Structures are given as C-alpha cells and as structure tokens.
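Hi there. Long-time user, first ticket. I'm pasting a complex I've been working with (about 565 residues overall). I'd like to know whether the download I got is complete or cut off, because the file seemed smaller than I expected. Thanks.
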Amino acid sequence: MPMDFKTALFYILSAILVIAALRVVTSRNPVHAALFLVLAFFNASGLWLLLQAEFLAIALIVVYVGAVMVLFLFVVMMLDINLERLRQGFWNNLWLGGPIAVLMVVEMIAVLSTRSFGLEALPAPAAAAADYSNTKALGVAIYTEYVYPFELASVILLVALIAAVALNLRQRKDTKQMNPAEQVAVKAKDRVRIVSMPVEKD
Amino acid sequence: MEAAVLQFFQWFWNLFGLWDALWALVEPVWPLVWVLMKVVAILVPLMLTVAYLTLAERKVIGYMQVRIGPNRVGPMGLLQPIADGMKLFFKEVLVPSGANKKLFFFGPVLAIAPALAVWAVVPFFDGGVLADIDAGLLYVLAMTSMGIYGIIIAGWASNSKYPFLGAMRSSAQMVSYEIAMGLALICVLMVSNSLNLTDIVQSQGRGWFADHGVGVLSWNWLPLLPMFVVYFISGVAETGRAPFDVIEGESEIVAGHMVEYSGMAFAMFFLAEYANMILVATLTSILFLGGWLSPVDFLPDGFHWLALKISFFLLLYLWFRATFPRYRYDQIMRLGWKVFIPLTLVWIAFIGTWMVSPWNVFK
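Hi, the file is complete. Here it is re-exported in full:
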C-alpha cells in the first residue's frame, strides 16, 4: 500500500532527526556536533509544520537556529579542544551514565507504548478551517487565558538577562573608556590652538 | 495565469503535433512543474539583477568619484558582469591545507541557500507570489537569520586567522542588528494586523489619504518613520555593507570570511551578499513604502512601482558606500544596542498606545 505524501514526509523527517540527534552526541568534533544539532532543530520544525503549527515551527528556527545556536557555535569555535582529554572521562562515568540512559529509554517506552498514546486514545484532531490562523490562536491563548504564566515566564527571563549582564559588568581601571557624547561635543578650538607668532628675524 | 501558460504550451507543441503525447507524460507532475517554472521566473531575473547591480555599483561609485567606471567590455561596459562571471567560473577553487574540507565547501552553500529561499514569500504584484503563506514575515526573519551560518562556517573551516576574525565580527554584528530589525517589524505587523506580506501591502492602501487620492501618505513610512529608518539602516548592517562592512574590512582583515575562497566558491558569497541587498531593498519597499501600490490615484498600481522603489534603496546602498567612512566596531555595537533597540522598544509602546487611543488611523 503506498503511503500518502504526508506520512512519507513524516518518516523522512523523523529519520533525519534521529540520525542528526545521534550524531550530536557521537561526533568527535564539537563544531560538527553543533551543526548536527542545527539540522535536528530543522527537522523538528518540519515535523511541527506537518502538525500545522506553522508559528511554532518558524519560531523554533528563528529562536534556536537563528540566535541560540549561533552564539553556541561562537563559543564552541573559540574553545581549544583536546579530543583525547575529552574522551578520557568516558569509561569513568559510564557506570552512572549507562543505567540512567537505560532508565530513560524504559520510561519512554512505558509512556509511549501504553494505551494512552494510541490512535484510539488520541484521535487525530479535526482539520482546521481554511481561514484559521495559528498565530492569532496562539496570541489569544497567551494574552487571555495564560496571561499570568506568560508574564511570569517573561519576568524570569528578564531576571536571567539582567543577571547575566550584572555578572559581566566589571569596570576595569586601566581601560581608556570613551564617552561618545563628549567625543561628539568636541569643537576644533578645544583641540587645536593656533598661535600667531612674529616671524623670527636674525 | 496558469491557464494562459498552459494554453501557450498547447499552441506551441501543437505546431509539431506533440501536445497530446507530451501532456499525458506531464499531467501527473504538472503542479510540481508549474512551481518550478515560477521558481525559475523569480530566480533568473534575480540573478541578472545581482549581475547588473555589481556593474551599477562600480558605475555609480565611479561617477561619484569623478571617474568613468568600467567601460571596456561591451558597449558602455554592459558586458562587464558577464566577463566577471566567466572569470570566476573558470578559476580553480583552492582548498587551504589545514581546512576542514567538508565544511569549507558547505559554507558557501549555506550562504546562498537562505538568500534564495527567502524569495518564496515575497509578493511582486497583487497575487504575484510563489507561496502566499500566513506567516510570511516570520519566514523571512527565519531565513535571513540563517544567512549567518554560511559566514561562520566559512570563517571557521578555512583554518586561518583573518577569516576567523571576520566570522566572529559578522556573527556578533548580525545577531545584534537582527534584534533591532525584528522589533521594527513588530511595529509593522501591529499596524497591519497580519504577518502575510500581501496583506501588509494591501493594508497600506487604506486610510484617509488613500481615499483622497494620495496613497503615498497612507503608507507605513509616515506613521512609522523612525522604524522605517531603523529598519533600513539595520538592513545595511545586516548585509555587512559599507559603512558597516567591518566583516570584510579590507584594510584590517583583508576580506574576512572570504579570504581563502576563490573561483565559484567565492562567487557564491558574492551572489548571496548582493541577493541579500536586493532583499532588504525589496522588504523595505513592501513593508514601509506600499510595495506595488501607486503613490497617487490617477496612476495604475503594478510591479513597475515596486521595481522603482527597490532601485531607489539599492541606489542608497551604493551612495552610502561612496560617501561614508567605515564605522569603528565598538561604535557599530553602540548604535545597535544603545540607540536602535531602545528606540524601537519605545516606539512599540507608542504605537500600541496610539492604536488603542481614539486617534487610531490604522483601520
């Protein structure tokens, strides 16, 4: 039985997503790992588009791919990474990491395989009307029903932002800081003094 | 338009009596073929514009500096871009010995792909758009923010100091100015109540002035004047053009991320940069100057108005380059973070207050 286009697309996107996510943790070069994470974000965004959540899908790209990962790459590229040193801790930490990984896989299987996730429990939602706007629906939900959690979340983000600035705001004594307002206000007569001197004659 | 094109094909292939056989083959994939035809119809003129923009740049800057500019290849130098293209095409692409080879070639691809993909949602005239999607403006933001990757990867994969410095500068600069750009766009989508670019243009054709025959005063540029200026200047910074061209500042870091590239790999960055310039000019025209709308009532709307507006902004780009000295790096950052972002934030609050006040003009 031939699959319809959407289902085929779903399998292609998820396959690439899983492979990219695996490569994030297995690739030796951290820059490659970061780029595979970008690829993973892209495919996740494709999956959201298939769910007709176009606002969230594009917001994922704008926020994570366009801003977060750029700064991430920025940092990773400037690190001087010694691959040998990085791999040393692998066997030492395996006794802790291994069981946790197994536990997480078991939990995921337990959640996803039960009756609560089948097509019977969660049937496909009715298709939205043609003039349905995802963006508008999200905006209405955020600013009416969930306005307090939304404001709370944004305040927490603002606190984090100010904290990051405050932690880095250290005035050094030996830097020659310039005051742009002073620079702009400078007049030629403050800088150059023209002296008229009589011609020296012998 | 689709029917007219089909009719033309039918007429053309019927001259050879091949239409029925051909249509039986093509019909199952016709929607795909039709989209591909539209893609070609957008990209070919775009690439030609890029080619002749380079010539226009050299000519305009030449005249501003009382020179003639290129005039040897073809009449009035008109074949110069073709000659340049041929030269780049036949040059060898060298790979530095310490470079990360895969990413070295992936960089130019990542630079050009988003620069072309953005054009899918740009409307050229009423209904003249490849993908008329709901979240068009958001898609534009997403794709333009992707353009940084090409530069960063190129800078890193070259394994050389100057490209790396260029990549660092560009990522910091682009991330900073994207914020100001995005906040300016929030004002636009507040007043037009839509993320769809066609709707944004049409919302500018309504208002008291448009009803009285002078639509030019109903466009977004007047009520959003500070945002209009901020958006265009941020656009210049985002494309890394003079006076914000520290990314490739020749006197400091030779050519930034492009130092190690030659031949077509270099040409990809070049094409991407000019395509992005044209994109910023187009978006400024669409978002603030009413796109294809005519400024006055007695002249018809149409693509020619958009082309005229785009040309104006492209001329501004060249004009900037010929007249302004390069900004110092800390001054670029200061302009972005301490001038543009506070200004746009205040203007968002102002527009919001204006829209709920009785003097709301944006209905």
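A couple of notes from our side: Chain A touches chain B through 24 residues (CB under 8 Å). The mean pLDDT of chain A is 82.
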